[in-house]
Amino acid sequence: MTSAETTLRGKISGAGRIDFATSPEEYRHWQLDVDGSVARLTMRVQEDAPLHRPTEGGAGYELKLNSYDLGVDIELYDAVQRLRFEHPEVGAVVVTSGHDRVFCAGANIRMLAQADHALKVNFCKFTNETRNGIEDASEHSGQHYICAINGPAAGGGYELALACEHIVLIDDGSSTVALPELPLLAVLPGTGGLTRLVDKRRVRRDHADFLCTASEGVRGSRAVEWRLVGEIAPRARFEDAVAERAAAMASEGERPDAGEGIVLGALTREFIDSGVSYEYVSVDIDRELGASFFDVRGPDGPPPQDAEGMRAEGDRFWPLALARELDDAILHLRTNEGDVGTWVFRTKGNPDSVEAYDQLLLENGEHWLAREITLYLKRTLKRLDVSSRSLVALVEPGSCFAGTLLELALAADRCYMLDGVLEDDQEPAAVRLTGMNFGPLPMVNGWTRAEGRFLNIDELQEHIGRDLDAEAASELGLVTFIPDDIDWEDEVRLALEERASFSPDALTGMEANLRFGGPETLESKIFGRLSAWQNWIFQRPNASGSQGALQAYGTGARAEFDRRRA
Fold this sequence. Notes:
This protein is of the alpha/beta class. The chain has 22 helices and 20 strands. The strands form 5 sheets. It has a 7-stranded mixed β-sheet with strand order 12-13-14-15-16-17-18, sandwiched between helices. Strands 2-3-5-6-8-11 form a 6-stranded mixed β-sheet, sandwiched between helices. A 3-stranded mixed β-sheet has the order 7-9-10. Strand 14 (281-286) and strand 15 form a beta hairpin. The longest helix is centred in the first third of the chain and has 24 residues, at 117-140. The two termini are 28 Å apart.
């Protein structure tokens, strides 16, 4: 669905831009309540408040049965972030429905049927990333998620439950968990359902096969026996059972016993036709070249002395501000600027300051706020890794590709570093390794980005804290090419022009395959395998054609399938 086909409302701006920034005061579909160490996220989707509104005479869609679209998930993502930063006292989060006898019907089918291909894919990717963030909070932050399924949970509704650490299903004779996408819609449970069943919950393959082909789902004791849920409770004891489980899990958490969190204030942003600017990140779009130039600015000065100083700076603390701005910029470009296929990263600033901030985070790794900021940087860089865009880094004099910011260069498909200086430069370009490049910021496959380049990690560690010029960086494998001042502009320009001339589909496939060598994890399977198959299926007529299952759903007509297996 394009902006020309819709009247825009909610988290879509008047310019037709989907906006990922929100706050609890603006929520339309979720309610966040905190009571001591237990928080409650209640899903009560407003049927008449979809992200996309129909034009006069248009079809539109209603968010019935707690079904969701991207707007619902934007609020969920915001709530998960705020729980981590604003409520360090919370050790358990209960996710439930505010509607009686219905949990969640999953992604809204009419929304999917009307959406163009890019919106479908970006919707699934963002939803996956949000669920991964829930799992990250449970695994690394001591903030355990419990899903209280108080009615039927179908499709994405059950997939939301699967992202939680523990699932309690109401045992009322009618409530089921189901993944009906294949029989009803001819698509897959694309927000990680297949992978989480077998990799996370260790559901037997034959049981998973039955669940994914039976639209009616599984209920009661069988759901427990098959490991689809953790426990069941009768309606009369359901709320007590959930409360008891939440209290027990909250007491096991590693969150601090007391102390206030920090408020995540509104981002300072300015959107213009040629890009977007924040305090530390600006993006300039060259539409003719099909490239976005990210200029990332290092900190203005030295970091505070200790963790309390870091806390006092709140959301203006440079690494946190950087993570928030870069995260928002990635989401904006990925969703709203689909024609811009190459992202070019440049930095500016003092590498000494970047290294000092890295050192502060590393030295205070046990402090809850330092931990959360590092985890946020990790998730933001992962979001960059899995974005279907060509990534290029340009290391020039005045750059500060050090530590955390060096990860942008290591994430790039190609990195160009100027060997020498240009006319007005005083010092040649340099890159610098810090401890942040050796573990705290892994990719989705669990490797560091340096390991993903098959570099000698032991040799690299010998150079921590040193400025590496172009020749040294090239010898160590940190950069791809090191043109001199004579060739710099032409070589970079030709590389970007060449990239723009290739098929974007083929580039997406190539990049996704090359970026993640080595081991597979739940995350890498979701983004490298499940997402790729769903991407393909979304384009097939059996699902999205005029007689396909997405169009036929709810009309009474049978979908017409091309029966050939490809």
